[in-house]
């Protein structure tokens, strides 16, 4: 059974790191309910949910995607660019150690939200959270595992996967890159057909492929309908409170999609 590793919402979520949004009040209890609904959507896609240890004093701890990459039987522990997140990586490493061969990035900075895997290629966005040294370190770590690292350029977005994610194959078997034209030039990616979100719905570019389902943030009906027209089983989950912390649906889980 495929698995998704998650972590509870911290009571200090309202103190999260912000780069592109103004700080607004966050209802932590509501955010926790939305996070539970997200986990339920993964369960309904036949994923087993495994909770990493709770980190109540780390505001961004729920966003586990930034702390590791899961590549088959391997897990690469990253080095998030926000200094306040340094403690999270050790907890993630400990939580994954019994399930994967664990490797660590030892220099530079890499946020997992900047890493988009398509086949054996890891596209890595150069962002405010991921730097050139980190990309080089990831390349050196991933190459022996059989993965090629390719640097990607962003426009105005927090992470690469804020603006582009792999949606899987449509009804005709064509692999599709879901992206926002505001954030990403799709010409950087090989072997996929670019599919733009509705221009009023850039947040829809961040999606989670979960078996036969494509989990999208609620509030993007035009994009969801267009995806359904191409044969995708698009499932919408309300993460509006978490989006106040610059979250997308990918950032709240580490996906191990092996059967």
TrEMBL record:
Any one GO molecular function term: hydrolase activity
InterPro entries named among the record's database cross-references: DDAH-like (IPR033199)
Descriptive protein name: Hydrolase
UniProt similarity note: Belongs to the DDAH family.
Entry keyword Phosphoprotein: no
Pfam families: DDAH_eukar
Entry keyword set: Hydrolase
